[in-house]
Amino acid sequence: MKLKSALVALSLLAVLVATAMPAMAKPTTFTVNYNQAQFQWRCFFGPFGDWNYKYQNSPETSDYILTGNVLHTAWSYSPVVTDLEGQSTVYVYNASSGLWIEHEGQVSYKYVAGYGDYWIVNFFRGYVEFDRAPSEGNFVHGVAYQWVYLYAPYSETPPVPNAIWDETIGAWLVGFSIYLWDTGTQNYDVTFPYENPAFPDPFVEPVPASNCNPLDL
Fold first, then answer.
1. Which of 33, 39, 152, 204 is deepest in the core (most CB within 10 A)?
2. Residue 112: closest CA among 168, 146, 159
């Protein structure tokens, strides 16, 4: 999925990842068209606690590769970041919920122009939903939660404006986004103070990773 960001635009593109699979599993590639909404906070544009960038009904297209009960994908970034690691990810089918749940991982990179010579780590959580088997015409809805952490040492003064020290992670929270994907017209509230989804209060942490959809979106 293509995820637009004011500082770092993300794209979720399907890639075939080397993985163990049943001998009879045959990879299937398909493309989905959908509308995207994003609710974003980045430390450079305002204090923690409010969205500072929102939109909806942005047409996007994504490719998937299906192998058995796994959808293979990868995150990519623009503008270009350096030392990108961990971008490959997968969605695994969960029979009890009927959802394809992202196998949570962490994406690491450096973006010196924005954050200096420190590692940035993104935590992702979310799912995609299909009506029956995954295919171009069966996509229904999806959500991605993104936490952006700056791994700079703790100090009394944040290394970048409005960064929040997170004791649980041991790093500076510098960004948080919710991405919503729908095949139909999106009708989320993007005008303050009627925002829906609202900025989470209490805030949701990326750990533990047992819930793919902490805000029930």
1. 39
2. 159
Residue 158 in domain = yes
What one-character DSSP code corresponds to residue 179? E
Residue 187 burial (10 A CB sphere; 0-12, 13-18, 19+) = exposed
What mean pLDDT do residues 102-127 have?
A: 89
Range of the structural domain that residue 80 is part of: 2-17+35-182
pLDDT for the residue 119: 94
> Is residue 189 assigned to a domain?
no
- Condensed to tens digits (0 to 9), the pLDDT of residues 192-207 reads 777 899 999 999 999 8
pTM value is 0.86
Would the pLDDT of 77 be above 70?
Answer: yes
CA angle 164, 49, 202 (to 5 degrees): 90
User: For residue 125, which of 99, 94, 101 has the smallest C-alpha distance?
Assistant: 101
Mean pLDDT of 29-37: 93
In a domain, 87, yes or no: yes
Containing 67, the helix (H) or strand (E) segment is: strand 53-67
Into how many domains does the chain fold? Answer: 1
**Backbone region of residue 115 per phi and psi (left: phi > 0; alpha: psi in -120 to 50; beta: other values):** alpha
CA 163 to chain CA centroid, nearest Å: 20
